[in-house]
Design brief:
This protein is mainly alpha-helical. The chain has one domain. It has helices at residues 2-13, 19-38, 44-54, 56-61, 66-79.
């Protein structure tokens, strides 16, 4: 949920996308976060590499620092996994 909130806030700050693009991007984000649950032993850098490929247009449109924020959150979650 925290990851979805970070993506959502970044998407709302992105002025490059119109309403329809944002809706498509939200669906793409939800699908990607859901598929993240099915990965077996994902690493934070592996997840970021995957997201950089799939969300290239989003990362280009949002303010600088989103990648770092996401990577730091993934590293923190990897240290202390919750059930």
């Amino acid at each position: 949920m925290e990851l979805q909130l970070i993506f959502e806030s970044a998407l709302s700050r992105a002025q490059k996308f119109d309403r329809q693009d944002k809706m498509r991007m939200r669906k793409k984000i939800r699908d990607e976060l859901f598929s993240l649950l099915t990965l077996e032993l994902p690493t934070p850098t592996g997840i970021m590499n995957r997201w950089e490929e799939r969300f290239q247009d989003l990362f280009e449109a949002v303010p600088y620092g989103l990648k770092d924020e996401l990577l730091n959150m993934l590293i923190d979650k990897a240290k202390f996994p919750t059930l």
